[in-house]
């Protein structure tokens, strides 16, 4: 499932998870953490990019490949990039993977692996 190494320089793959207030936001976040640990990309701060913090926006714009992992169809991550005019190479929406949005912050290993797999497939 390897998609590439990430050093936030040449060859970088940055992962921008939703991290929202629901199970699907937290699954997006957990998937980005695990993919970073596996050196499948590097988790990066979506909030900093959305807040227009210059260095973070520059790093996002300078990455070779940007993957937004949105929890639901509201698409906060995707919209933050659109607002900035920074290209997103791939968008994964957790609810489009058959995972229902709830506010109980509970998810299964299978659901996490489903999001990780979809992210890796769509990033490569």
Structure explained in plain terms:
The chain has helices at residues 23-37, 46-50, 54-62, 76-84, 109-123, and strands at 13-17, 42-43, 65-70, 90-93. It starts with 12 loop residues before the first strand and ends with a helix. Helices cover 43% and strands 14% of the residues. The chain has one domain. Strand 1, helix 1 and strand 2 form a beta-alpha-beta unit. It has 5 helices and 4 strands; from the N terminus they run βαβααβαβα. The chain is of the alpha/beta class and 124 residues long. The model is unreliable at 1-10 (pLDDT under 50). Helix 1 (23-37) packs across helix 5 (109-123).
What fraction, in percent, of the residue positions are helical? 40-55%
- Spans of at least 5 consecutive residues with low confidence: 1-10
Strand content: 5-15%
**From N to C, what is the helix and strand string?**
EHEHHEHEH
Mean pLDDT: 90
Number of strands: 4
Question: How do the strands of the widest beta sheet line up side by side?
Answer: 2-1-3-4
First-residue to last-residue Cα separation = 9 Å
The main pleated sheet reads as: 4 strands, parallel
Radius of gyration: 13 Å
Total tally of structural domains = 1
Instruction: Please state the structural category.
Output: alpha/beta
Shape: globular
Output the number of helix runs.
5
């Amino acid at each position: 499932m390897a998609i590439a190494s990430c050093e936030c320089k040449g060859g970088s793959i940055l992962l921008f998870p939703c991290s929202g207030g629901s199970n699907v936001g937290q699954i997006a976040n957990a998937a980005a953490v695990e993919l970073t640990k596996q050196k499948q990309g590097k988790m990066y701060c979506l909030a900093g990019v959305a807040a227009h913090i210059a260095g973070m926006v520059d790093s996002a714009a300078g990455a070779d490949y940007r993957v937004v992992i949105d929890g639901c169809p509201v698409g906060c991550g995707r919209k933050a990039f659109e607002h900035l005019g920074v290209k997103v190479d791939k968008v994964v929406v957790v609810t489009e993977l058959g995972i229902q949005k709830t506010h109980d912050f509970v998810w299964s290993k299978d659901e996490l692996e489903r999001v990780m797999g979809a992210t890796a497939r769509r990033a490569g």
